């Protein structure tokens, strides 16, 4: 505890760095995965290829990818872009399948009827398909967010900032408290992100909870009817 | 007036849904397309708002060949009500009803005010305006569907088995409601169903279809009942089972009507119905 108090400033700085490194991959991953997922949903032929490629991306060892990035991007070894691009690739790999499932999950009846009352393709996407894919997309982003926050710690192995520094430094100094602070800090960031995402979901998708409650009620009513 | 002229539709998988179909649907009346599954009735309905384009033949609304009209604009000018309501689950009742006006650029406040008026028209309590569709009963959802169909005051209203998924009691309520609305508004309604009783109840003109959109008979319900064109029609309307064959018997000095199964259907009264 004394160590924590003595180093509170460094802990705070590294936490901020950690957050700054986590947010871009989550956002970029989402923004890239949604259109790719939509294409995979819309065009049957592209589906197999896209989903397989994204699945394979995830199997590339993360450390190898970070180390290779400067060569691929032509950046300096300590440029945060190396880590951000790497983690974006993982975010996309994780998110594309969920995004595809999210669009698949939108009821065909609803899209049909939207077309029938005069939504053009563009408005139908933005006003019907995307919001209705929202709950599943949100579930996907929550996984990506947690996974990204934890992967940022890997950056410490190649000299990047973030709470991962406490892992490498604590390991070298054989100092458990420091490692523990790194772990707890990372978990806290992940939890805060998750809570923020859930709150954002409640604000943006107010109907989703009502829908879920209605389905639950229908189910209990059915179960009761069967039991009676 | 809607006119089908030698319309055929072959789907990409090779099925011939409709073959050489011609029909005139008069304005401001209800025309019911009735047939079992595979009769092409829904395909025919969807051709009117270009959800499906015919392989050959032409469809005219008044004098416009609809293949020359822009599909999205055409659809916004035609009311559409489908089975399971097809409401947008992420929008409130009022917003659902206002869907088409909002798409066409009507101001939000005005669209909402009109939506509330339409809720009165279809017999929905205004307190439901801010609920989501999943919070309503099946019957209420269908009413919202009808209100949405009426929202831009279209000349034409297409209804694809709109009451097929609700229980019989609610269905009969909704049917009566539709008759009442139609009496006031006099739209050109094209209604699809597989239920012959519903067809006879709602239709000014009934079109009986067999497989592939072949017309078995067209006429008013009375004409079809009085004069079934063939055995197919006979079977379809249930005349062959004697269900519609009523006879009069005298019981304790009064004339009662007995149906084909020997059950009491009602009492015969003199004079025209009031």
Structure description:
The complex is a heterodimer of chains A (228) and B (274). By secondary structure, chain A is an all-alpha fold. Chain A has a single domain (2-227), classed as MetI-like fold (Orthogonal Bundle), CATH 1.10.3720.10. Chain A has 10 helices and no strands. Chain A starts with a helix and ends with a helix. Chain B is α/β, with parallel strands linked by helices and 274 residues long. Chain B folds into 2 domains: 2-238, 3-Layer(aba) Sandwich (Rossmann fold), CATH 3.40.50; 241-274, no CATH class. Chain B is 32% helix and 27% strand. Chain B contains 10 helices and 13 strands. In chain B, a hairpin with a 3-residue loop joins β9 (205-210) and β10 (214-219). In chain B, α5 (108-121) crosses α6. Chain B starts with a strand and ends in a 7-residue tail after the last strand. The mean pLDDT of chain B is 91. Classes of the chains: A mainly alpha (228), B alpha/beta (274). The A-B interface holds A 107, 109-110, 112-120, 123, 128, 131-132, 134, 205, 207-208, 210-211, 214-215 and B 46, 49, 51, 72-73, 75-76, 80, 82, 84-91, 99-100, 103-104, 132, 134-135, 148.
The succession of helices and strands of chain B, N to C, reads EEEHEEHEHHHHEHEHEEHHEEE
CATH class group of chain A: Mainly Alpha
| Neighbour order of strands in the largest sheet of chain B | 6-7-8-3-9-10
Query: Which descriptor suits the 3D outline of chain A?
Result: globular
The parts of chain A where pLDDT drops under 50 for at least 5 residues are none
Give the count of structural domains of chain A: 1
Structural class of chain B: alpha/beta
């Amino acid at each position: 505890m004394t160590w924590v108090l003595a180093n509170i400033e460094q802990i705070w700085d590294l936490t901020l760095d950690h957050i700054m490194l986590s947010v871009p991959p989550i956002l970029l991953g989402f923004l890239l995965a949604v259109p790719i997922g939509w294409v995979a949903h819309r065009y049957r032929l592209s589906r197999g290829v896209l989903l397989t490629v994204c699945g394979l991306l995830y199997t590339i060892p993360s450390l190898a990818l970070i180390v290779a990035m400067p060569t691929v991007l032509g950046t300096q070894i300590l440029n945060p872009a190396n880590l951000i691009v790497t983690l974006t690739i993982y975010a996309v790999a994780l998110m594309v399948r969920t995004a595809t499932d999210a669009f698949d999950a939108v009821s065909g009846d609803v899209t049909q009827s939207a077309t029938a009352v005069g939504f053009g393709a563009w408005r139908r996407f933005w006003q019907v398909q995307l919001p209705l894919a929202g709950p599943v997309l949100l579930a996907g982003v929550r996984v990506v967010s947690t996974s990204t926050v934890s992967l940022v710690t890997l950056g410490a192995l190649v000299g990047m900032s973030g709470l991962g520094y406490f892992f490498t430094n604590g390991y070298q100094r054989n100092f458990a408290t420091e490692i523990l602070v790194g772990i707890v800090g990372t978990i806290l960031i992940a939890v805060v992100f998750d809570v923020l995402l859930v709150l954002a979901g409640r604000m943006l998708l107010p109907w989703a909870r009502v829908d879920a409650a209605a389905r639950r009620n229908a189910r209990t009513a059915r179960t009761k009817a069967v039991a009676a | 007036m809607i006119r089908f002229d030698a319309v055929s539709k072959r789907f990409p998988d090779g099925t011939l849904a409709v073959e050489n179909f011609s029909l005139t649907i008069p304005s401001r009346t209800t025309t019911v397309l009735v047939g079992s599954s595979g009769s092409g009735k829904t395909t025919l309905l969807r051709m009117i708002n270009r959800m499906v384009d015919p392989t050959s033949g032409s469809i005219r609304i008044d004098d416009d060949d609809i293949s020359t009209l822009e599909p999205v604009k055409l659809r916004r000018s035609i009311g559409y009500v489908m089975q399971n309501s097809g409401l947008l689950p992420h929008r409130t009742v009022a917003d659902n009803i206002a869907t088409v006006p909002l798409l066409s650029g009507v101001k939000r406040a005005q669209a909402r005010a009109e939506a509330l008026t339409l809720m009165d028209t279809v017999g929905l309590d205004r307190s439901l305006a801010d609920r989501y569709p999943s919070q309503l009963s099946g019957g209420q959802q269908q009413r919202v569907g009808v209100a949405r169909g009426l929202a831009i005051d279209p000349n034409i209203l297409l209804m694809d088995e709109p009451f097929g998924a609700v229980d019989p009691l609610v269905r009969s309520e909704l049917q009566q409601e539709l008759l009442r609305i139609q009496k006031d508004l006099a739209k050109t309604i094209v209604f699809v169903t597989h239920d012959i009783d519903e067809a006879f109840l709602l239709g000014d003109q009934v079109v009986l279809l067999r497989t592939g959109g072949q017309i078995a008979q067209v006429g008013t319900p009375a004409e079809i009942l009085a004069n079934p064109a063939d055995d197919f029609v006979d079977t379809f309307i249930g005349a062959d089972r004697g269900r519609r064959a009523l006879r009069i018997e005298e019981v304790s000095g009064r004339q009662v009507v007995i149906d084909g199964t020997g059950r009491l259907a009602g009492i015969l009264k003199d004079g025209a119905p009031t």
